[in-house]
Amino acid sequence: MNLLVTGGAGFIGSNFILYWLKKYPQDKILNLDKLTYAGNLENLKSVENNPNYNFVKGDICNLSLVDSLIKKYNIDTIVHFAAESHVDRSILDPAPFIKTNIEGTYVLLEAALKNKIKRFHHISTDEVFGALPLNSKEKFNEKTAYNPRSPYSASKAASDHLVRAYYVTYGLPITISNCSNNYGPYQFPEKLIPLAITNIIEGKKVPIYGDGLYVRDWLYVEDHCKALDLILHKGKVGETYFIGGLTKDIPNIEVVRKILKIMGKDESYIEYVKDRPGHDRRYAIDWSKINRKLSWKPEVDFDTGLKLTIDWYLKNQDWWKKIKSGEYQKYYQKQYQK
Ligand code: NAD
Ligand code: TYD
After folding, report:
1. What letters, b where the CB count within 10 A reaches 16 and e where it falls short, cover 297-323?
2. Global confidence as pTM
3. Considering the domain boundaries, does residue 227 fall inside one?
4. pLDDT tens profile 152-206
5. Total tally of structural domains belonging to the chain
6. Looking at ligand 2, which residue's alpha carbon is closest to its atom 11?
7. What pLDDT digit, counting tens, does each position of 267-318 carry?
8. 206 close to 256: Cβ distance less than 8 angstroms
9. Which domain holds residue 72?
10. How far, in Å, from the CA of 186 to the mean position of ligand 1?
């Protein structure tokens, strides 16, 4: 395969590139990434000299660039990760979310259609389905109606609709996956798990929004990459697959307690702070379709995944300390000045 990976310098994209080049050394990958605050080429140091890997710094909103790259690199498959991905930033400033997540996806679809791409895989989120009530058994599945409630999830929902529309209207061979909260190595430390781990290492408190009883489904990033591998090789064109983890309704406060316990720290590190506006109460994902159709299931249980992740952040302190001393500081000033 000749893959165009968008957003490959981000958290999941870089894990995907490392996974793919190891498993399929004969395939070629072109990584197109704008290198926003979230993009980091250090994630890809180990493959930068691989002759089957190329990187271009550029914007997915630039149609002539995308079109010329698809031609130049003879791309047959697009794996679309590039996005503005953090809910709190979308609340502070929705503009880049609308631009990249909606317009950027539209540009890629146009370029894919024009160049007769064999597969366009779109990475999306469970957040497009809104919030489930606490203490219910309800889960999102592939038939759940869209109900996004933040600028981030609304922009991702719009992108999902565009991708599906290009399949129905123009016959573009697409697949879509909606996954739950990923965690693992190389995640930018603005998201809950890496924020908690790195704050604890620095001796700082962990901010818990509201009552801390918000629930997310947690997916280890390598399990996500394996699911994408199956969808790209065996997934049915036009279909959507839900990808989730092995956690069962664990509230945020319990996630942080688990991290504290593994790191040998007490609860004095917990600090309750003002809630996120429009905070979705609960996400839960039914991944039985991908299990049935493609025999995928998550393999890494939450305790093991957390230990692996904590270990990675302990061993790679230079990676996140550099991040935390840059643009990050300004974001946190804005975030807590609201
Ligand atoms: P991330 O924020 O870590 O990385 C995003 C990457 O996209 C960065 O490298 C950034 O530089 C790049 N990018 C942003 N705008 C761009 C543009 N206009 N042109 C080119 N590149 C651009 O995100 P992530 O956590 O790796 O998420 C990847 C995808 O998975 C996103 O589409 C996100 O919506 C989706 N997703 C993420 C999670 C999660 O838990 N992280 C869960 C569900 C879905
Ligand atoms: P986050 O990692 O931002 O992912 P998402 O909003 O996409 O689910 O947040 C995960 C959960 O943790 C969410 O319920 C918000 C909460 N949270 C905190 O309580 N404190 C924090 O500092 C952050 C970043 C998130």
Report:
1. ebebebeebbeebbebbeeeeebbeeb
2. 0.98
3. yes
4. 999 999 999 999 999 999 999 999 999 999 999 999 999 999 999 999 999 999 9
5. 1
6. 192
7. 999 999 999 999 999 999 999 999 999 999 999 999 999 999 999 999 999 9
8. yes
9. 2-186+218-246+279-300
10. 12
